[in-house]
């Protein structure tokens, strides 16, 4: 598979290394200031910055190249990208987290929220810890987890930092070079239940994005990691 990388930072470099190990080749690396040229790429993979994601995804779709995007912090414009994909009869996957483990964790989170729904004595909150270079807070993964809880419970929204009734409090910590840790806590007066996903490196995110690209390259339409991993 011939890959065009949109963004050649920490994730772009990790994807290149793992993709080559899987027998793929990186035919283009498009970083800030570079001209869009997808050469003969089969697929584009975007891990850039919140301000660049929409342009990157749009250019790939308009050039007829299937695009996988893992950039976070731009999701208010996701519906526009869905429409553009349909207009161009293209192929597109976005995921706030491509790691297989986190996608299992997303399902576990929803299952736990369902089970806790009737138990008023527990308050749910979340902490995400990431490296100090991260531009957005809360993380895209934390937002997906909060949306999963909202889907299954009486909570109506999430809030960064302060506690507010009926909202899920998310605490964002920036610390050294932490790749990404997400913890969900249900706290009562007598005990607490915690579930946690801790990434040991960026390899899981990168491998998941490559698996998504392999799956997407001959498809059309807008898809999710649930489709890729066949999670009910
Ligand atoms: N969905 C997932 O599984 C994961 C998502 N991420 C997200 O991916 C993004 C990138 O993360 P990192 O690689 O750690 O960041 P990074 O800061 O190391 O790399 C971003 C790269 O994008 C480049 N860039 C800036 N403007 C650009 C433009 N207009 N076009 C192309 N490239 C441009 C920067 O120069 C830099 O090289 C972040 O939004 C992060 O939250 C990170 C890890 C996993
Ligand atoms: O910026 C990162 O590094 C990460 N970003 C994603 C997010 O915002 O959820 C995924 C992962 O946690 C690493």
TrEMBL record:
EC primary class: oxidoreductase
Gene3D superfamilies: Dihydrodipicolinate Reductase, domain 2 (3.30.360.10), NAD(P)-binding Rossmann-like Domain (3.40.50.720)
Reaction(s) the record says it catalyses: (S)-2,3,4,5-tetrahydrodipicolinate + NADP(+) + H2O = (2S,4S)-4-hydroxy-2,3,4,5-tetrahydrodipicolinate + NADPH + H(+); (S)-2,3,4,5-tetrahydrodipicolinate + NAD(+) + H2O = (2S,4S)-4-hydroxy-2,3,4,5-tetrahydrodipicolinate + NADH + H(+)
Residues covered by the Dihydrodipicolinate reductase N-terminal domain: 1-98
Transmembrane regions listed in the UniProt entry: none
SUPFAM superfamilies attached to this UniProt entry: Glyceraldehyde-3-phosphate dehydrogenase-like, C-terminal domain, NAD(P)-binding Rossmann-fold domains
Entry binding sites for (S)-2,3,4,5-tetrahydrodipicolinate: 131, 140-141
Protein name according to UniProt: 4-hydroxy-tetrahydrodipicolinate reductase
Species this chain originates from: Leeuwenhoekiella aequorea
């Amino acid at each position: 598979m011939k890959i065009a990388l949109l963004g050649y930072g920490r994730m772009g470099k990790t994807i290149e290394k793992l993709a080559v190990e899987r027998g793929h080749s990186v035919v283009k690396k498009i970083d800030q200031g570079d001209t869009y040229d997808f050469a003969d790429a089969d697929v584009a993979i975007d891990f850039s910055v919140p301000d660049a994601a929409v342009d990157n995804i749009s250019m790939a779709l308009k050039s007829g190249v299937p695009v996988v995007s893992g950039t976070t912090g731009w999701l208010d414009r996701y519906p526009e990208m869905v429409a553009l994909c349909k207009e161009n009869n293209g192929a597109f996957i976005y995921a706030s987290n491509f790691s297989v483990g986190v996608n299992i964790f997303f399902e576990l989170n929803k299952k736990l929220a369902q089970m806790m729904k009737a138990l008023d004595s527990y308050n749910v909150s979340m902490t995400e810890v990431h490296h100090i270079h991260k531009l957005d807070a809360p993380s895209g993964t934390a937002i997906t987890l909060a949306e999963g809880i909202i889907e299954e419970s009486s909570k109506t929204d999430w809030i960064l930092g302060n506690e507010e009734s009926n909202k899920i409090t998310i605490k964002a910590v920036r610390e050294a070079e932490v790749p990404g840790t997400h913890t969900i806590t249900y706290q009562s007066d007598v005990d607490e239940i915690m579930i946690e996903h801790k990434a040991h490196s960026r390899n899981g995110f990168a491998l998941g994005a490559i698996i998504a690209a392999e799956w997407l390259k001959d498809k059309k339409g807008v898809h999710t990691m649930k489709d890729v991993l066949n999670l009910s």
